[in-house]
Design brief:
The chain contains eleven helices and eleven strands. By secondary structure, the chain is α/β, with parallel strands linked by helices.
């Protein structure tokens, strides 16, 4: 992977009904198809441009694709106020946002929780319902796994954060990359088994689970079977031959099977496109063209879920 999400988040100075609970059964997803900012970062980076440098231009480009919802990433609360005017200007919904957190260390966790809560409070005007977080690893790009004590501390604080967000009418969705799937996926499983489903739901990043388990659909669908009822959001990405493609399309992961499996469980999550680029990805189109195609394909694949 050429660009690390957390690296970009730490570098960025910008990027601003009923609670959607995992047990909710609905006839359709309550939100329009959304798109995470990270995919736009990777496209802009390839063109030697900076996503978020000019929020007005960036949000205009985003809206030109036909997308109606945006999932930004925030590192601190004051970024929210910078983004909200442009979300409103281009009539975009913001049902979910992505935030970093550091929860495995007792000394850092209180500050991290306070930061996420401040972001959540700043999001009230946007009517945001889902806060997605991927707790930080021990070291960016490192190979060391967290200790059992650190996993226990992280799960306790993840549950605490979820309870605080629930009191604000929001749902906390736990997200992973490939790191959490190491060592028999001990970190991934413990975060879900040691937290209350009423406080902590799951944002299933489909391709990171697939890649983190050695490009295994067996592992992916086992996780859906185990935790499907907790899934409130999907991050959607596709590869061919293990390489991320420019557009969301048919490929390594059988998304039609995923739709069928989740429908059989009466689970219809919020859909968030995140078709990112890596060094070996094809180079045939720009971000606007790619996301227009993403929207067409996802609308067809998930047509039964959308209002």
């Amino acid at each position: 992977m050429s660009i690390d999400r957390r690296t970009f988040m730490n570098a960025l100075a910008v990027s601003a009904g009923a609670v959607f609970l995992p047990e909710t059964e609905t006839a359709a997803s309550p939100f329009p198809i959304s798109c995470n900012q990270y995919s736009w970062i990777t496209f802009y980076d390839r063109e030697k441009r900076e996503w978020g440098a000019n929020l007005d231009e960036c949000m205009a480009a985003f809206a030109s694709t036909g997308l109606k919802a945006y999932e930004p990433a925030f590192t601190q609360a004051d970024e929210v106020a910078k983004l909200l005017p442009f979300v409103k200007k281009y009539q975009l919904a913001m049902p979910s946002v992505y935030v970093n957190s550091s929860l495995h260390n007792a000394d850092e966790s209180a500050k991290s929780i306070d930061s996420v809560i401040a972001i959540a409070d700043a999001l009230k005007p946007a009517d945001t319902k889902i806060i997605v977080t991927n707790p930080n690893p021990l070291k960016w790009g490192g190979t060391e796994n967290k200790s059992d004590a650190e996993l226990a501390e992280q799960a306790k604080n993840l549950d605490k954060l979820g309870a605080e967000l629930k009191r604000r009418g929001m749902t906390l969705a736990y997200h992973t990359h490939d790191v959490e799937l190491r060592a028999a996926a001990r970190e991934f499983h413990h975060m879900l088994l040691a937290t209350d489903p009423k406080n902590v739901s799951l944002c299933l990043d489909v391709h990171w689970v697939y890649r983190g388990s050695g490009n295994s659909q067996v592992a992916l669908f086992d996780i859906v079977k185990l935790y499907g009822k907790r899934i409130v959001e999907l991050h959607l990405r596709q590869s061919k031959g293990g390489i991320w493609q420019e557009t969301f399309s048919d490929g390594d992961i059988d998304y039609r099977r995923l739709v069928s499996t989740l429908k059989s469980m009466n689970v219809m999550p919020h859909l968030v496109l995140e078709q990112c680029l890596e060094k070996t990805s094809p180079k045939t189109m720009d971000a606007v063209q790619a996301h227009k195609q993403d929207l067409v394909y996802s609308a067809e694949i998930f047509k039964d879920w959308l209002k």
